[in-house]
């Protein structure tokens, strides 16, 4: 059974950048440095390794880190993945060997995870494994530089390091921030074309499942492009590339199957 859900369209407002230090790491652009949207959350790779309860709200990974308790983080589950997006600024290389991308992983256990980055949400580049806690990675070491810009970051829990019981499993993500950035409004024309995408947002009910469907016509046919994802009671988001697609319509459906 599917139910159509109203979609919210929200604009971005310009932010003033002020340098701030979080967990001993200075971010020259302050709060603007952190991921802004959840693209996908797929906790666990099997039914026995799923987190639950207050630990499965992916929106807790957005914005500045709380750095206090795991109540302000989202658990990835055993081998689970979380994909986030930068919308007001984009991750770039720095041109040197300094760490450009930082992940704030919290909790009593320090749990490692794997990182990938993408410019368009379709083509991904692996950055290897980080050790957990507050960890940074130099994307220049992988052949990128200040001329490269990335919107998306995917985090995947290392399934070999955790058990399969309890509500809180896998790496616990508090925030993801970029030291080296470029404002999204000031990309070159070529980069703007590469990063062409649409954001779909909708109000969710906790425990309900949703899918996003797309069509080149308001009359369909409709095809699934995202989900199912579980509602958290807050606004959910989905980014979809519109490159080479001049016209596209979207709808969000609540589903029980």
How would you summarize the topology of this molecule?
Layout: E1 2-5, E2 7-8, E3 20-22, E4 25-27, E5 37-42, E6 74-75, E7 81-85, E8 89-91, E9 101-106, E10 113-118, E11 124-130, E12 134-137, E13 152-157, E14 172-178, E15 181-183, H1 189-194, E16 197-203, E17 209-215, E18 223-230, E19 235-241, E20 249-255
Antiparallel strand pairs: 1-20, 2-16, 3-4, 5-7, 6-14, 7-13, 8-15, 9-12, 9-14, 10-11, 10-13, 16-19, 17-18, 17-20
Question: Overview of this structure, please?
Answer:
The protein has two domains: 13-186, Sandwich (Jelly Rolls); 190-255, Immunoglobulin-like, CATH 2.60.40. Helix content is 2%, strand content 40%. The chain is built from one helix and 20 strands. Strand 3 (20-22) and strand 4 form a beta hairpin. The radius of gyration is 18 Å and the shape is globular. The termini are close together. The model is unreliable at 1-16 and 186-195 (pLDDT under 50).
What descriptive keywords fit this protein?
single chain; 257 residues; mainly beta; Jelly Rolls; Immunoglobulin-like; 2 domains; five-stranded antiparallel sheet; 1 helix; 2% helix; globular; disordered N terminus
């Amino acid at each position: 059974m599917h139910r159509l859900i109203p979609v919210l369209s929200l604009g971005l407002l310009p932010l003033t950048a002020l340098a701030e230090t979080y967990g001993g790491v200075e971010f020259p652009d302050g709060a603007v440095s952190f991921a802004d949207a959840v693209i996908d959350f797929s906790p666990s790779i099997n039914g026995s390794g799923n987190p639950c309860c207050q630990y499965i709200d992916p929106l807790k990974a957005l914005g500045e880190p709380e750095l206090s308790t795991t109540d302000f983080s989202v658990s990835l589950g055993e081998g689970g993945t979380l994909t986030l997006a930068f919308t007001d600024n984009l991750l770039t290389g720095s041109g040197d060997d300094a760490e450009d991308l930082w992940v704030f992983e919290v909790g009593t256990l320090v749990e490692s995870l794997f990182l990938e980055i993408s410019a368009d949400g379709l083509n991904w580049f692996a950055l290897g494994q980080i050790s957990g806690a507050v960890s940074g990675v130099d994307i220049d070491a992988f052949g990128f530089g200040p001329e490269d810009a990335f919107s998306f970051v995917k985090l995947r829990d290392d399934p070999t390091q955790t058990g399969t019981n309890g509500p809180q499993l896998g790496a616990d993500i508090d925030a993801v921030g970029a030291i080296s950035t470029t404002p999204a409004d000031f990309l070159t024309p070529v980069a703007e074309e590469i990063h062409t995408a649409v954001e779909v947002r909708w109000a969710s009910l906790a425990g309900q499942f949703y899918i996003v469907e797309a069509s080149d016509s308001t009359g369909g046919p409709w095809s699934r492009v995202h989900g199912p994802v579980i509602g958290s009671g807050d606004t959910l988001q989905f980014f979809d590339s519109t490159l080479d697609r001049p016209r596209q319509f979207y709808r969000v459906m609540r589903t029980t199957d």
